[in-house]
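Example record used in the benchmark description.
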Amino acid sequence: MTTLNGKTALVTGSTSGIGLGIALSLAKAGANLILNGFGDASAVIAQVQAFGVKVGHHPADVSDPAQIADMIAYAEREFGGVDILVNNAGIQHVAAVEDFPVERWDAIIAINLSSVFHSTRLSLPGMKAKGWGRIVNIASVHGQVGSVGKAAYVAAKHGVIGLTKVVGLETATSNVTCNAICPGWVLTPLVQKQIDDRAAAGVDPQQAQHDLLAEKQPSLEFVTPPQLGELVLFLCSEAGSQVRGAAWNIDGGWLAQ
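Model output (structure tokens):
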């Protein structure tokens, strides 16, 4: 098992869903955690504290570079900096390009792509000074293929993979690595809404879930947050030290088609 005792991980968008699953995996491995997300985080903090690690929460809106800078300053002040950065925060909106609201495009690019740049540029100096660091960007299969109605999300995730490659190259001779994970369907609130929308149109909920998976994911099973957490742990381990600038698919066979 990967041991991360003494390391500090910052996971954006970690008060629910994928981010929480990754945070719990990191805490189980001994990492101190800085959670990020809106709302009352007390219940989530208690979940992470159960592993006996130090936990903090910063409510930064990652669409705002100034709030990201404040979050990194908080990490340096309270935890001695960020050793593991997991850029996970994301939002979605579905509409045809000609109907896509400009404000939704701007928000998706800011949260899903620009925040990755800002968190990375602000964390890298501390990682380099310590001589060790791991940056894991939660991209998507939509960072490598398109789907109708998801112009902003697909554009942002393609950008995340491109940024990952550049940072991976720029840190290639250091003990800092940067990689992206590309999940397929994960049963998050965003995906559940798509199932609910199909059910509202008269489709049995179980059938709606099956049909959603069958369109893209040959395994007919969702990827789970704990599975993503375990992959993050691998990338943080010594065994993952020469994985650099990669876009790692975990998608039930989606991109094998």
